[in-house]
């Protein structure tokens, strides 16, 4: 079955995952990590995409992006992918592909899943056994949101600002969200939606979104094919 085109709509947050080919490392040093993050920040700005959050792992990375235009995310990811692979191959004397095909993404219902996606990303290095606490992982936006540093690449979403009236209140509230963790059900919903390209939200959200795009936005129910609007 042919893969569906990616679902991208201006103004909505998108959770993006890009993996290394055959789960190989996409970074070999802190210099690689810094270069990749600089590319992400530079291209997000160039293509009018808000970089809301990120988590960089050894063989993949997660992004939470909100584009101003429908082609912002794909143009950003294409530019980052090409420039980083060229840099990585030249620096490490290698050739060939680095990525596991095209990036995966899901469009997120902000009020229900945006903060959940941020927590999911922050806890990724903990689930992978790399660190015991997300504060110990320097290659994510987590420390920016809990007030340990300022990362000028990051644009906090409006829901983060609603966590409190002062920076301290917002940082404390977000720290508690991450500390509370997530259920296996919520983790599974985020992972499944992102890997399959379905919208991450409730039925009303999916129905409203379907009116804005001919691309099918949700998995069809058994026995009831979901038709895109004409």
Automatic annotation (TrEMBL):
Pfam assignment, any one: Y1_Tnp
Annotated Transposase IS200-like domain residues: 9-124
Domain of life of the source: Bacteria
UniProt cross-references to InterPro entries, sorted A to Z: Transposase_17 (IPR002686), Transposase_17_sf (IPR036515)
The protein, known as: Transposase
